[in-house]
Amino acid sequence: MGLLSQGSPLNWEETKKHADHVRKHGILQFLNIYNKVKDRQKDVLKWGDEVEYMLVEMDDKNEKVRLVLNGKDVLETLQEKGEKINPNHPTLWRPEYGSYMIEGTPGQPYGGTMSEFNTVEDNMGKRRREAASVLRMNETLLTVTSFPRLGCPGFTQPEYKPTPVEKGVSKSLFFPDEAINRHPRFSTLTRNIRHRRGEKVVINVPIFKDKNTPSPFVEAFPEDDGEAARAALPDHIYMDAMGFGMGNCCLQVTFQACSISEARYLYDQLATFCPIVMALSAASPFYRGYVSDIDCRWGVISASVDDRTREERGLEPLKNNKFRIHKSRYDSIDSYLSCCGDKYNDIELTIDEDINKQLLDAGIDKLLAQHIAHLFIRDPLSLFQEKIHLDDENESDHFENLQSTNWQTMRFKPPPPNSDIGWRVEFRPMEVQLTDFENSAYVVFIVLLTRVILSYKLDFLIPLSKVDENMKVAQKRNAVQEGMFYFRKDVFKGCNPVLDPPSTAQNGVESEAKDGEEFTLMSIDTIINGKEGVFHGLIPMLNCYLENMEVDVDTRCTILNYLKLIKKRASGELMTMAKWMREFVARHPQYKHDSVITDKVNYDLVHKCDRIAKGLEKCPELIGDPVNRGK
Ligand code: GLU
Ligand code: MG
């Protein structure tokens, strides 16, 4: 989840005093990087995936499953056995928000050759086995986006009680601080978000109304001092801590582009896919022990780190704050970055005018300047005493401080100072899938998509406000089948980002965008599989690309299996994880159709998930029957 520094974290009051300092030096650090590497060309295409895992304990005797809070020890052991003794170790392990979470990536990025697609699943399998090998007998590693009983009494091992009243960083009624990673970054973020906001975060997820669900659905919170009663909405599952969001797991992919303009082009193009691929990866229907009416985690995390004050949220007139801010720090992107995107930038963009001017004066073009000036409307949320005064030429911590706490659907990443890493973009909306096969399929699908976009110079841009509308639709229950999404009809007829440098956009050359003609509402099936007379379909495009590429037989077979999964998920022939979990619960003999996921139901569900993930059980309705699985 970003940069980890060691040292003494400052509280919110102290951090606030240094906010302008962090922003000022953050911008200088960005400019230093930019000036050094802006003209860098010919970096090769590299990419890598990130998978987030939960550590769980299966208590077979009591038929209970709990999250194990030993992520720190597991991580240390994995690093000691891996990267610390072998710089070429095939896996890398990193901490994540929950103390029951770890994150794994391949040891080296993948390169541009097709045969590497055939190693992705293998590497994910290595990670899973490697991590599993250091766990205790009854523990296992799970790639489930949201743990169904997160925040329910006794959901952790060891068990801890939340501390809503006494000292604590979350003050949650449900989520104990011990379930937060012990590295000070995570607790500091949690506490400072709450202090900056002026109250606990508020997450309300609509409950799924089953035939025996009370209506209205209203909960009592015995330990509440009044805050929950004010914040909780009827017919919603109420949550009050960062852990309910950042304690979820996802699947991300980062690309290195060959130049800054290619990175900006990819950033924009991929942004339009975020809602589509998120809906296609939907895997999180349950929250705090209840069946919800959403299928994706996005809005939950968004609310879980929403540090905006009442003034910034527009509930009170601006007095102590500078800006009215429309979105949480964890949200969809607010502006396109490539020249082609300029005319589709139709979201009101709050920017720090002084920073924007400073960037423009330093020679940065309008689109990049406003992007950075928008990220920098935020305050730093965590700052370490020892890390206030930095060498702006050779360090970038202040820039990264704000960059890494703007958790948007896409992230545009400048190279670190003095490194041979190029300009990168990160694709962040996907939910993690149950098996390595599925995770590989989603990752390979996105990587192939970038190749096709770059090779055929495709243009998928639509007004950004429409992408935002798509984001809302994407999270709804069964959006993959029922949702209609704005999508561009003719993707072969856009502007050419490499021939049109950003300056043309700056000069305001408006080409007429005949809105309503360029894009239309489509189902995910149409977008992915195509529909005569409406849209060509992404899978047919990828297939066409593959036919023209030299690919060995084995790799081709693997890729086709992956694309088949994507294709069938889009058409509804296969279920999403969200749908599959819903059906499992609905059919469970002990489920009372009251939207409650009991310990027993949760245990049976997780048990089944674990067996499928380990390849001990097939699950054709979710995964199909891929030919060469498990090789
Ligand atoms: N776990 C977060 C999510 O589900 C992402 C954290 C990160 O940026 O690594 O989106
Ligand atoms: Mg992560």
UniProtKB/TrEMBL annotation:
Question: Which EC main class describes this enzyme?
Answer: ligase
Concerning its family, UniProt says: Belongs to the glutamate--cysteine ligase type 3 family.
Give UniProt keywords alphabetically. ATP-binding, Glutathione biosynthesis, Ligase, Nucleotide-binding
Its biological purpose? Catalyzes the ATP-dependent ligation of L-glutamate and L-cysteine and participates in the first and rate-limiting step in glutathione biosynthesis.
Cross-referenced InterPro entries, in alphabetical order?
GCS (IPR004308), Gln_synth/guanido_kin_cat_dom (IPR014746)
Name of the featured protein:
Glutamate--cysteine ligase
Oligomer and partners? Heterodimer of a catalytic heavy chain and a regulatory light chain.
Per the UniProt entry, the Enzyme Commission number(s) are 6.3.2.2
Gene3D superfamilies membership: 1.10.8.960, 3.30.590.50
Q: Which GO cellular component terms, listed alphabetically, does the Swiss-Prot or TrEMBL entry include?
A: glutamate-cysteine ligase complex
Source organism superkingdom: Eukaryota
Give the pathway annotation. Answer: Sulfur metabolism; glutathione biosynthesis; glutathione from L-cysteine and L-glutamate: step 1/2
Q: A Gene Ontology MF term for this entry?
A: ATP binding
Q: Which GO terms describe its biological process?
A: glutathione biosynthetic process; negative regulation of apoptotic process
Catalysed reaction(s) here are: L-cysteine + L-glutamate + ATP = gamma-L-glutamyl-L-cysteine + ADP + phosphate + H(+)
